[in-house]
Amino acid sequence: MKKRKLSFLDIWNMSFGYLGIQMGFALQNANASRILQIFGADVHSLSWFWIVAPLMGLIVQPIIGHYSDRTWTRFGRRKPYFLIGSVLAALGLILMPQSAMLTAFMPALWVGAGMLMIMDASFNIAMEPFRALVADLLPADQRTLGFSVQTALIGFGAVIGSWLPYALNKWFGVSSEAQPGEVPYHLILSFIIGAAVLVGAVLWTISTTKEYSPEELEAFDKAEGIVHEEEEKGSLLNIFSDFGNMPQTMRQLGWVQFFSWFALFGMWVFTTPAIAHHIYGLPLEDTNSKTYQEAGDWVGIIFGVYNAVSAVFAFFLPAIAKKIGRKSTHAFSLIVGGIGLISVYFAPSPNWLIVSMIGVGIAWASILAMPYAILSGSIPAKKMGVYMGIFNFFIVVPQIINAIIGGPIVKYIYGGNPIYAIVTSGVAFIIASFFVLRVKDTDDTVKQ
Q1: Model-level pTM?
Q2: What's the confidence (pLDDT) of residue 259?
Q3: Residues in domain Major facilitator superfamily (MFS) profile (predicted)?
């Protein structure tokens, strides 16, 4: 008894919810720093506000993975988590740019940071089971394709989310101007649209995808000769024993993920102030001028570029990995991404940043697919959810470290200039590429 091969349309549908999740996530990534600065955050304190994002991932994803492995309802195993997470994330998206409405309770800056926390917790509730769903439903020889399709949908959703504020302003005439301390209406409307698309896309996946029952998954494992130890009681404390017993491949990938996500966090937090200051020539104190809003919208455009590139490159990843192996594919992609980020420093004009982001897009596509394709072959099906959640430790811990030290480094070492944080992220990508070559890929068809 084997898992049936799914059609491309089936694989597309099972991951379609990720398009909506990533649209909301992209709106957050491209605009949260801008919104927090509008509400009064200093550039060197931005990373401290962003710390709530990885903290939520650290807490939420292993717990969601643990319980989704043990959940079975008439709606399915992973699908209830998709729905709950998407609804909560949508509420956070609607309220964050409108935090000024709640200033009777606390300052808008703190309300905005709280909404950021709610969004990230909810994104994590929805995202983690999507990774496990690919491993649940696809046979081993389709998993690289499954994660690549997921990456492509992530890219498409992120392009829409990143470009939406610019499009509403330039193409539909929605105002991008606002009084000091207020968020422009084109940003508010973008977040509302993002919330609606998020919930709609997740509902599409829920309505078009059928999950295997726990009994069927166990039968598949038996047919493949996979023997499980006596099942443990469903205690959350088992997460700690699972962490201690993680496979060697997962430990090795941890270093790759550490430097990759340290780089990404620095890029997400500091790109808007870096571009506004280094490319547009604005003083760091300027967070309300029309030029600053133009710089923020252009950051959305270039973030959309890297996500568009990742969506396209994701379709080539399976073929490239089949030729040169998954490890070499990932190492190459990270090096290209590192060069792209370092080149931001040398960009003579905003348009040149598009070239820089092409490299970042290649790295982003690989980061979203290759580590999971490598990992999924080294962990048992019954532990897929919890290990995918634990694997998130290697994503959130480097972000937390960057959140703690990134601001002080910019302030005291880089003289307040955030462009050097972007260069540091590029160097971190290249370091990650060297760690990839040390990873043991247990089921890659290309031996390295």
Answers
A1: 0.73
A2: 97
A3: 249-448
